[in-house]
């Protein structure tokens, strides 16, 4: 039994307010068991057991909660999330079903980002009791990983630059006794030339770097997790309009996902040899900014013509993926807030998934459905490679014609992953433009739980 999460506790018979879970099919039977006063209260609330409804009704000298779910026999992550935000502070116990994976939304439904508020909320927590004590630690770990992504993405760029991403990786390395190596300055220019070129204009205060962490038994299967760490994206000399920069503190969302997934892997002691890579930069404007028309060399030896300095994320990922491939992993997963085209195609909720292997793609899709974190697969269509042709270099970083932007970005990355390596790429938004139960507006993890579920199925003991 675990007591480490203050919001989810093992049920030891503590005093608690009852939450009665009911669905439409069971409403009539439930009402027959209620007192006349309770039925009258529910009628006054116009309670009809539509999913997401709840009502507080009298119960002797106290009160109970009646909450509707789609099906009491199959709770989702979000079934209790609205309650976790709406109910008064206190301790609660479910009746009619064990909370199961709905414990996740109970935790994330109480998340708030108060770092910059002078008067943060002092409302007490809502604690949920469960007889399924064996599930608490795993669900807590997932919820805390998601909240880590939210915290990192919500933090403004002045306080979440390349140095702060390095500090986050150092904290993980210390906590889990991992090895960390950071490449900067002249060594960065020699070893990771595209990372250096993208980040050099930010100056010394937000200087670019490649962050690498390794953990686990070298005899175990090697996997690499890569995250795009563009801490702020002005667009470079192909500068964005001011409206396009407003959310660009979230352009390190891929790095946040990678750090959170690495923490899940290490915390669970998954039997893998983990290699985490975060190329961390700010794409700024200065006299030494890289320019449209420049040709950059890369770690992989591929020359890249710059068609658009605002397509910088794929450049730094190219060097990181090449480095990951040198270690001969059996699987590489990268996360990146890479293209607006993916959002046009799929909207904010669905990460675009690209994968070389059908089985890996299906495992990620299945993992997403099982954890209420769905993804949607898009093609690595060979016919679109010609859109990345360059007249002067091996490849252009920006596709021509304006079509299939997410696909051409993925095909660009594919050039830097060695042949034969199982590779998956998630083009994620890392942001909620509007709130949903358990998912406040702001930074969020999209594709993280899908990936973690897949890795547990693939490598779990």
From TrEMBL:
<dbReference type="InterPro" id="IPR043472">
    <property type="entry name" value="Macro_dom-like"/>
</dbReference>
<dbReference type="InterPro" id="IPR011356">
    <property type="entry name" value="Leucine_aapep/pepB"/>
</dbReference>
<dbReference type="InterPro" id="IPR000819">
    <property type="entry name" value="Peptidase_M17_C"/>
</dbReference>
<dbReference type="GO" id="GO:0030145">
    <property type="term" value="F:manganese ion binding"/>
</dbReference>
<feature type="domain" description="Cytosol aminopeptidase">
    <location>
        <begin position="308"/>
        <end position="315"/>
    </location>
</feature>
<keyword id="KW-0464">Manganese</keyword>
<keyword id="KW-0645">Protease</keyword>
<dbReference type="Pfam" id="PF00883">
    <property type="entry name" value="Peptidase_M17"/>
</dbReference>
<dbReference type="GO" id="GO:0006508">
    <property type="term" value="P:proteolysis"/>
</dbReference>
<keyword id="KW-0378">Hydrolase</keyword>
<keyword id="KW-0031">Aminopeptidase</keyword>
<dbReference type="InterPro" id="IPR048816">
    <property type="entry name" value="Peptidase_M17_N_1"/>
</dbReference>
<dbReference type="GO" id="GO:0070006">
    <property type="term" value="F:metalloaminopeptidase activity"/>
</dbReference>
<dbReference type="GO" id="GO:0005737">
    <property type="term" value="C:cytoplasm"/>
</dbReference>
<comment type="similarity">
    <text>Belongs to the peptidase M17 family.</text>
</comment>
<protein>
    <submittedName>
        <fullName>Leucyl aminopeptidase</fullName>
    </submittedName>
</protein>
<dbReference type="Pfam" id="PF21337">
    <property type="entry name" value="Peptidase_M17_N_1"/>
</dbReference>
